[in-house]
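Example is below:
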Amino acid sequence: KLYQVIGRKAPTPLDPSPPVYRMKIFAPNEVVARSRFWYFMHQYRKMKRSTGEILDVNEIREKNPRIIHNYGIWLRYNSRSGTHNMYREYRSLTLTGAVDQMYSEMAGRHRARPRSIQIIRTATVKDKELKRVATQMYVKPNLKFPLTHRIMRPSEKKLRTTFAASRPNTFYH
């Protein structure tokens, strides 16, 4: 799920209106999103949970999850040998679906756990701007998938038989 977390440093007499920070965070639930917000804010600013406050947490949903998009994800992850930057492309109906694919692929290919992956940026990518061959092969205008092992079914129940005299033909043009 994608959450928008808004927080700031707690107001003090010296700084009555501190700046407000907004962050988009992928997390399984709201509690983890709040925790990740403080994890990143501690890295970027002199803030932590005890000196700050969270103003709002909202889940961001896709406007129209019926149209497929190409998503580009820039990420950083810690492997056993060091920290690596990476760019990946996915085709999905939603951004959160693409991020789920990314977590699964990173676990399979690089043995990277979700806690060691930091998503730096996400964007929708036009068909012409795709870089990876694995996503380019699905954007062809005349893309067709073969219908393999099609079995003819009887049109009515009375035409169905338990034993047939001939083997079924499963290859059709």
Notes: The chain is about 20% helix and 30% strand.
